[in-house]
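Need a sequence for this fold. Nothing fancy.
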């Protein structure tokens, strides 16, 4: 069954962050995700989740200095203690919010660092994060991100991600498959779903090539959704796209498919 989660860092951009929870619920979403919770009081987020009966599906571990252009630190040598501190901080928030998944962004490839060194740091950090998250019942995810949108990102393709997961060999380290990024980097979405099905924790969607609503798009999402159902994928599908205009009007694609139904907030 297809279950959509609203990415509140992308959808409803005209609203203050906390008000986006109410808007998502009104539009029929039962789950939400966002990039980062760290600038907001955890109690305030929890209140919005509870009053709207929303599941908080996923957010990212601290990414380093995002405003300065950093995009994660999990693979960056010399940042190991910062990564560990960020894991502890994120897990406390995730436990309070009932979060299911934490995404560990790898980071941008630094100049002059050998690929083997980056790999070793990445694997060690992910093993640490997965071990720390296990008592919480939380999954750590990694996500290939295309280098058109994020030049220099360390983890770009599905197969290297699967090899990292195999190397770490932690049951709660799994794949976050953003089908927009897969389309931009590799294509062959159905093959990608099949290839990673055994470690697939979370799916995200957006239309390609411009990362707007899934329809219209060069991706045939009717076929993609049918394939996810056929493979018995039972996780959430995060709507991580930039609306062309009004978010609510742009959700017609989901309402036409019976995936969202308007409801009143509590």
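Here you go.
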């Amino acid at each position: 069954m297809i279950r959509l989660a609203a990415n509140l860092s992308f959808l409803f951009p005209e609203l203050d962050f906390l008000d986006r929870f109410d808007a998502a619920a009104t539009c029929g979403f039962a789950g939400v995700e966002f990039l980062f919770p760290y600038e907001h009081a955890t109690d305030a987020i929890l209140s919005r989740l509870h009053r709207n009966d929303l599941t908080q599906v996923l957010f990212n571990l601290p990414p380093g200095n995002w405003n300065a252009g950093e995009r994660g630190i999990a693979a960056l040598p010399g940042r190991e203690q910062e990564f560990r501190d960020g894991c502890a901080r994120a897990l406390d928030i995730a436990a309070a919010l009932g979060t299911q998944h934490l995404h560990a962004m790898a980071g941008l490839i630094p100049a002059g660092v050998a690929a083997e060194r980056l790999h070793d740091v990445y694997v060690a950090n992910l093993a640490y994060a997965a071990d720390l998250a296990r008592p919480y019942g939380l999954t750590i995810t990694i996500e290939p991100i295309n280098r058109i949108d994020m030049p220099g990102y360390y983890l770009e393709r599905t197969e290297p991600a699967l090899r990292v997961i195999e190397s770490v060999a932690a049951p709660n380290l799994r794949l976050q498959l953003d089908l927009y990024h897969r389309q931009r980097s590799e294509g062959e979405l159905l093959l990608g779903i099949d290839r990673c099905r055994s470690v697939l924790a979370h799916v995200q969607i957006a239309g390609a090539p411009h990362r707007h609503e899934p329809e219209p798009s060069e991706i045939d999402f009717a076929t993609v959704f049918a394939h996810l159902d056929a493979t018995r994928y039972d996780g959430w599908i995060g709507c991580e796209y930039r609306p062309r205009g009004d978010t609510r009007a742009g959700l017609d694609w989901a309402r036409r498919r019976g995936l969202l139904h308007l409801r009143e907030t509590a």
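For context: The CA atoms of residues 22 and 209 lie 29 Å apart.
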